[in-house]
Automatic annotation (TrEMBL), chain A:
Record's keyword terms, sorted: Cell membrane, Membrane, Transmembrane, Transmembrane helix, Transport
Identification of the protein by name: Phosphonate transport system permease protein
A Pfam entry, by short name: BPD_transp_1
Ranges where the ABC transmembrane type-1 domain occurs: 81-263
Cellular component per GO, a single term: plasma membrane
Membrane topology qualifier: Multi-pass membrane protein
UniProtKB/TrEMBL annotation, chain B:
Keyword terms, alphabetized: Cell membrane, Membrane, Transmembrane, Transmembrane helix, Transport
GO molecular function: ABC-type phosphonate transporter activity
Claim: Flavoprotein is one of the keywords in the record: no
Species this chain originates from: Antarctobacter heliothermus
Name of the protein this chain belongs to: Phosphonate transport system permease protein
Listed PANTHER family: ABC TRANSPORT SYSTEM PERMEASE PROTEIN P69, PHOSPHONATES TRANSPORT SYSTEM PERMEASE PROTEIN
PROSITE patterns the record matches: ABC_TM1
Subcellular locations according to the entry: Cell membrane
Length: 271, 271
């Protein structure tokens, strides 16, 4: 900035520079946004009388968190929770095991083109389909029960983990891998000693994160009949047994917090 | 690095005997847990349905193709509702997550002992419960409809947005904040001119990222009655109108792909 500009600015009030520099774009975005908001508010029908009537029930629900009922449906809660955990563990193990080769195949720097395209295709399909929609289809095909949930979670794990793993492999340090190759390593040795040590910390971290997500997702798969705690939770809501629902929600939150803490400890140790 | 004496020659091993025994035991335990989990899933499965699955899948496929294209005329309104649920939910969540994030960040929280844990609890509890469960709950409280979906998405997104925001706040450059403080700025002025400009790009990125996720989630909220295209999906599934189901799935897939493209473009422009 030259001195002349500084002199011009002296004595005038300072104004914060705007976030979007181009004024036309700024105003156009703002106008479009306001127009959208008006359109959206006009088309949403809210039955305020119903909302007002429901507030009392909402307050009852909030109160039920202070006196959750773990006891009266204890066996249902226990069964559902155990099924959720079982599904999470099995699906995470299978999903991670399958996503490692697919992740290797989806990395452009180590996979040949046809393999790359096939693996990227699998990843894209798995990521585009929502868990709950996959669960609906699998329940229709395989029948009710935790098997459908297990398959859903495994399928979702593959898309998530392979993509992130492939990105990590693509951004790895080539020099180390090249050095291993130069020593005359076979392909398997190249992967084992050149690639694996570089991506292992991230793989462990991502796997822990995915286990966490799988548990959270397993809590809703029961809504469509794919096993887990969701069915119990749905029944509790349908029967207005808010204290049981609160107990289930508290258990889910506690388990997720525990998993998050555990994954933090493991990630800190690995990295 | 342990070196083991064997027949007069020294042999290098990667691990001591104790270490390798421990690792072997760990793997054994892991495999055992997985087998127990698999056993439970298998017990809860009707294997006859599973062996029958290819035939059923084929049957559903022949019923679902070709999609009933003319049904798309009835999907305009549900798509608009879905868009509204995701967008309004994200906006509400952003408004609510900003104060939570400032209370949760170590460098801006008024009290580390009392207020920060409360803010973190809000973040964890809203994040660990899926939006479908929030929708289920809100439908029981304020009745079915788009409004319940908006609120469900909003609550679910608070934790996510607040977590990413508070991490951004904790990573800000302290020099700029100190410079603004040195000019004699009040607490609020420090926030507005020292902290906010630094986290604005992160904020915009989080907003678009969460909007993209919310489009995905709001497509299925209708399954529990919270409005949007999921409502059409669930009614088509209930009457086994498979050609309509396949069309709706295609529309959802298109919406997901478009929203991901938009979010990637916008984030690319910001960062």
């Amino acid at each position: 900035m030259s001195h002349r500009e500084l002199d011009d600015m002296l004595g005038k009030g300072w104004r914060k520079p705007p976030f979007i520099a181009n004024p036309k774009l700024r105003w156009a975005l703002l106008a479009g946004f306001v127009a959208y908001l008006i359109a959206a508010f006009l088309t949403i029908e809210v039955d305020w009388a119903r909302v007002y009537a429901g507030l009392d029930r909402g307050w009852q629900f909030v109160l039920s968190f202070t006196r959750p009922d773990f006891v009266s449906r204890a066996s249902d809660i226990w069964e559902g929770l155990l099924e959720s955990i079982v599904m999470t563990v099995a699906a995470s193990v299978v999903g991670i095991a399958i996503s490692i080769p697919i992740g290797l195949g989806a990395a452009r720097n180590i996979a040949p083109m046809p393999v790359y395209l096939v693996c990227r295709g699998i990843v894209a399909v798995s990521r585009a389909l929502q868990e709950i929609i996959v669960a609906i289809l699998l329940v229709a095909i395989f029948g009710f029960g935790p098997l459908a949930g297990f398959l859903t979670l495994s399928f979702a794990t593959i898309g998530f983990l392979s993509k992130l793993l492939a990105e990590d492999i693509e951004s790895m340090d080539r020099v180390q891998a090249e050095a291993v190759k130069a020593s005359g390593a076979r392909w398997m040795q190249y992967i084992n000693y050149g690639v694996q040590p570089q991506i292992l910390p991230r793989l462990v971290g991502l796997s822990m994160y995915r286990i966490d997500i799988n548990f959270r997702e397993s809590a809703i798969l029961g809504l469509v009949g794919a096993g887990g705690i969701g069915a119990t939770l749905n029944t509790a809501f349908d029967r207005y047994e808010y204290d049981t629902a609160a107990a289930i929600l508290i258990l889910i939150i506690v388990i997720v917090m525990g998993l998050e803490y555990l994954s933090g400890v493991i990630r800190a140790r690995v990295q | 690095m342990p070196v083991i004496e064997q027949g007069g020659t020294q042999i290098w091993k990667r691990r001591t005997r104790r270490e390798s025994l421990l690792r072997w035991f760990g793997w054994l335990l892991g495999v055992a847990v997985f087998m127990i989990c698999w056993q439970r899933i298998s017990d809860a499965t009707t294997w006859f349905f599973v062996w029958d699955a290819p035939r059923i899948a084929n049957d559903i496929w022949t019923r679902a193709t070709p999609p009933r294209w003319e049904y798309i005329t009835q999907l305009g309104r549900p798509i608009w509702d879905t868009l509204n649920i995701a967008t309004l939910g994200t906006i509400i969540a952003l408004f609510l997550s900003v104060p939570v994030a400032f209370l949760a960040a170590r460098n801006t929280t008024p009290s580390r002992v009392f207020i920060r844990p409360i803010a973190l609890l809000i973040i964890v509890s809203t994040r660990s419960i899926n939006s479908l469960i929030w929708a289920l709950l809100l439908i029981a409280i304020i009745g079915p409809g788009v409004f319940a979906g908006v609120v469900a998405i909003a609550i679910r997104s608070i934790g996510f947005c607040a977590k990413l925001l508070y991490e951004a706040i904790e990573e800000i450059d302290h020099g700029q904040v100190e410079a603004v403080t040195a000019t004699g700025a009040s607490r609020w002025q420090v926030m507005a001119f020292g902290i906010v400009p630094q986290i604005m790009p992160a904020f915009a990125g989080v907003a678009v990222f969460r909007w993209d996720i919310n489009i995905r989630e709001s497509t299925v909220l209708g399954l529990v009655g919270a409005g949007g295209i999921g409502l059409q999906l669930s009614s088509s599934l209930n009457v086994l109108a498979w050609p309509q189901v396949s069309l709706i799935l295609l529309v959802i897939l298109a919406a997901v792909v478009i929203s991901e493209w938009v979010s990637a473009k916008v984030r690319g422009a910001i960062i």
